[in-house]
Amino acid sequence: METIPKTPGSIDLPDLLQVLANSGLVLRSHGTTPGLSLTSPSLYDPLAPLEGLRGGILLGIGLHPAEPETTVVVREAAQAGFGAIVLKQLSQDIEELANTADQAGIALLVVDDAVGWRQLDALLESALSASAEANRSASPLGVGDLFALANAIAALVGGATAIENLQEQVLAYSTLPHQPIDDDRRNGILGRQVPYLPENAGQYASVFRARGAVRIEGVRPAMDRLAIAVRAGNQPLGSIWVVDANGDLDSDAEQALERAADIAVLHILRARSTIDLARQQRAELLRRLLEGGDDVQLVAEQLGLKHSGPFAVAAFQLDLGQSDELSLIRLVDLVTTQCEAHGQGAQCVLIGTTIYALFTEAPASGPGSIEALARRLIERSAASLRVKLRASTGSTVTTVADISRSRHDADLVLLMLASGRSPGDYANAQEVRSRLTLLELSALFRNTPHLVSPAAASMRKYDAESGTEYARTLRTYLDFSRDSAKTSAALSVHQNTLRYRLRRLRELFGIDVDNPEDTVVLWLSLHVQELL
């Protein structure tokens, strides 16, 4: 959707959606929208005329996407000056309504059915308020509110309280006197980071699986905890942990903690809004740089990069079947934290389900230090997140224009690792260059099938229909430079069997292994066909 430049006291719709990323709010229309007002959202009332501040947001409570009345309300909201209307999709096709919104000049937003209207109103109010403050001040927002909230929870529930984000960083903690704490709590406060312990993964998993408060038994000498996940709709934002020193926090304490979690959503969103906007804008620039294009020099300048390297791109990907949303979020945070702490000018971004790290001061001597970092991340993700991670490093390049090639090589290495054609969970492009060449050639052969040797194609078809292994036999024979003894051993057949197969190859497919040009094309075709 094209956005008209915002005016003072307004926010661009894409910026608002970035602040509320993963809250269940999605843009469904495609037309032009003005900047949205930073005032509180309006609630739809079928018994009252639509009156709104220009650029305001209307919450279409009770409107069903399939009802004709909803189409009328969308048009009337646009005429009244609203900049956006929010509906629930309710499993309906919403495309026609989106077209109506485009024609009327209003943005159509859809919120996840699981998000309550009261919670959405509070989320929007918090995001708009945070943006209004961000216009007046560049300082981080809401941290003081989080500390006040932590103290309020500690007083209400009855134990020392810590509020954390998904990276297990301590955002705020209570400071009420005479509430017992243990070393885990003390170390978390001192470092503002939950200390790594073997039991962490299991404890956090149980908290984020539950819909309410969870009792966590401490591994002695640690005390027990009462904990709860903080969510915006179905999207986790963080967690709250209350020390249960004597094991006497009852069901009333659980209910109080559950109410506090709803309030914490607003504070966590507010605390991260300004920081997240800057981070997401930088991430978008980094995506453009990794994808390449005519504007890479300009993008590099906006990122503050030198035009000459060396540069290298590392890529990280969860094993297939483990890329659930929470695991991916926590992995992004782990990779980003470790890579940026590693130095070498690292910057990270998530594209699809792959996390990329651009090292802008990559060592010219090779990717050894990046490999050490990647292997530590693989070990750490297995230990703390209990997920299997694959990692790769692309070619080291010397100009910003070639950064996309390094990313391309890293992707190919990941593809090779996922296919099982290379053992292990890490590889770099420099070490497997020949295999990468074959992968790229396989893509070329796929798009240009006439390049494939006709004999190789006939051979594979014959094998598939007859259950024979002529293609594998010939490829192995050529791999071993026509050494019969090594080929027989590799295929686990007698040399007489091998000689029979080679004779039949000539008879069936007219193959002449003494012709060097035909042999090269045939060998290459047999290899790349295995990758198609």
Automatic annotation (TrEMBL):
PucR C-terminal helix-turn-helix domain ranges (all copies): 471-528
Domain CdaR GGDEF-like: 294-414
Highest taxon of source: Bacteria
Gene3D superfamilies: PucR C-terminal helix-turn-helix domain
Entry similarity comment: Belongs to the CdaR family.
Organism: Arthrobacter humicola
InterPro entries in the record: CdaR-like_regulators, CdaR_GGDEF, PucR_C-HTH_dom, PucR_C-HTH_sf
Transmembrane region(s): none
One Pfam family it belongs to: HTH_30
Protein name (database record): Helix-turn-helix domain-containing protein
